[in-house]
Specification:
The protein starts with 38 loop residues before the first strand and ends with a strand. The protein contains no helices and 10 strands. It is 0% helix and 48% strand.
Length: 183
């Protein structure tokens, strides 16, 4: 076996370097092979449903979160999540706001949607919905980033909802996935 030491590979002719059938190019660590737009790492978490409730008008963690430590300081992080909420009727409406907050060396609102639920106040018919979303977040450092799904009564108004069952319900699974994409 031989060891080849080079700083660059180039073709003698043409634009393709071919690895023959049955042969492999193997990197020995997680960062040994990098190409633009390739997935560098994948993180996934699940949260078991339960019966937790809140009447918060301030942003409150659902518990659905994950942490990823970027390998590169210019990567994009693609995040998607799925989470079930039951929103109890309020005096005015039956609505909540959702967001994903990024914490670590930053504190950014990466994704937000306002006034989910319904306009009416159907007593005893509270909407139970699976809320999902996806977004791309650009990092500026390799410091760990935590993505947290949060909720509050819509517009931070006490009249917008009653109880918010934010881990609805026993037997459900809430998920969050993040993939670092090389640039």
């Amino acid at each position: 076996m031989s060891t080849l030491f080079v700083n660059n590979l180039n073709t003698a002719t043409g634009t393709t370097i071919t690895i023959p059938t049955g042969k492999q190019l193997i990197g020995t660590d997680a960062n040994s092979i990098k190409a633009p737009d390739m997935v560098v790492q994948y993180q996934h978490t699940t949260l078991a449903g339960g019966s937790s409730t809140s009447t918060a008008t301030a942003w409150t963690d659902t518990g659905n979160q994950l942490t990823i430590t970027p390998k590169y300081n210019n990567s994009k992080i693609f995040v998607c999540f799925s989470h079930v909420l039951r929103i109890g009727h309020g005096v005015s409406h039956t609505r909540a706001d959702l967001r994903v907050l990024v914490t670590g060396d930053v504190s950014d609102e990466a994704w937000v949607t306002n006034f989910v639920g319904e306009e009416s106040q159907d007593a005893g018919k509270d909407p139970i919905n699976n809320y999902g979303g996806s977004f791309t977040y650009t990092v500026a450092s390799t410091a760990a980033k935590t993505f947290k799904l949060q909720f509050r009564k819509a517009s931070a108004s006490a009249n917008e909802a009653g109880n918010i069952y934010y881990k609805w319900y026993s037997g459900s699974i809430h998920t969050m996935t993040a993939m670092e994409i090389a640039q």
